[in-house]
What does this fold into?
Amino acid sequence: MTPEQRAAFARLADELLPATGDLPAPSSVHVDGRWLDRALATRPDLVADLERGLASGASAAALEESDAAAFAALAILVPGAYYLHPRVRRAIGYPGQKADPAPDDENEWWLRDGLLDPVIGRGPIWREAP
It folds into this structure.
């Protein structure tokens, strides 16, 4: 992404997710940098639509009216990039994905009323991935 595209992304991100309370504006956490790069790496199928929307120079509201696909790309990538930032995740109390193993005796709770008996009776099944 060019510096101009990144600046347009930050501007539109601030329109979609303005700063409120403890949540910073996307541009203040540099959502247009590595966070955008990570979001785009996850959704490379949105690059062309996003680039078209950024090139339009339109506001987010105007983009929503004029180019639904470009707006959809923006609406997916802005929060995707924003909520990757550690400062934002701390502000909403989300530590990120972490292992949370079940207690050793949890299986007794799930098995207590026979809800899973049909699944256990059926036995293990699966399909090979294509």
